[in-house]
Amino acid sequence: MIDARQLTKRYGEKTAVDGLEFVVKPGTVTGFLGPNGAGKSTTMRMVVGLDAPTSGSVTVNGHRYGRHRAPLQEVGALLEAKSIHPGRSAYHHLRALALTHGIPRRRVEEVVDIAGLSGVARKRAGSFSLGMGQRLGIAAALLGDPQTVMLDEPVNGLDPEGVLWIRNLLTSLAEEGRTVFVSSHLMSEMALVADHLIVVGRGRLLADTTVRDLVREAGGDTVRVATQDPARLRDVLAGPGVDVTGRIGSEELQVTGLTAREIGLTAAEHGIALFELSTRQVSLEEAFMNLTRDAVEYHGSTTGTRTVESVGRLA
Length: 315
Prior knowledge:
By secondary structure, the chain is α/β, with parallel strands linked by helices.
């Protein structure tokens, strides 16, 4: 478990992390999200003692990282995949780590196999592609068979097979009861693998929630329905957890809390003709962008936007 309490880091006048409080629990994959410059990497560095907090604290399994007698066996971290000697082979890099932490040789061979490095283990790491470097960094994070695994952008440079591998790896680690804390800018991957989310912006906590709840709060699945009798349809759809909105004089209604199928069946039961029934699904990316809109430090120019909808028209 990772426990941050009023965690703060300042560099001169710049506050990179501002009073963060969160708990990363075992048995689940927790996604760590935020725009560039949000303080994610700084936070992760403080977890493993590479940066000292200006104030506040962060512990792993009840102790600061540096207080653990065998830290590599408590938390395995990937923060910078290419931070290895380029002239050393993947195997000898892992073997050197193992020797300094009392980890047996057989574990080196195990993580080489887990990371899919068997065919290149004796090659110099300096010749590795970005994806192979990522695999080596993940192998090093797993070397101590830690109960807590923390990975910063682990899918960078991985091909589709590698992305599927890391997805399955994260899920299996959580199923084993380990604490899994992973940052990523790929919202599609976070939507597939993460159970819980911690979202930060400008160093501050923006959300500590589940993927489902974040998407729901951003609008969830909104159904657009068009009918000649919107007032009557609004009445028959009304109920707990159902929100129906629409402009006065318009035939269109926006409905949340019911599926398109439920709306269609209810309308049919009451003899209400529908002209259109369409579902707009809010993605995790949309929910994230909505939440962090005011916390983005670096803006690019845009030439347009595109919304994807799943539409079914009724004849």
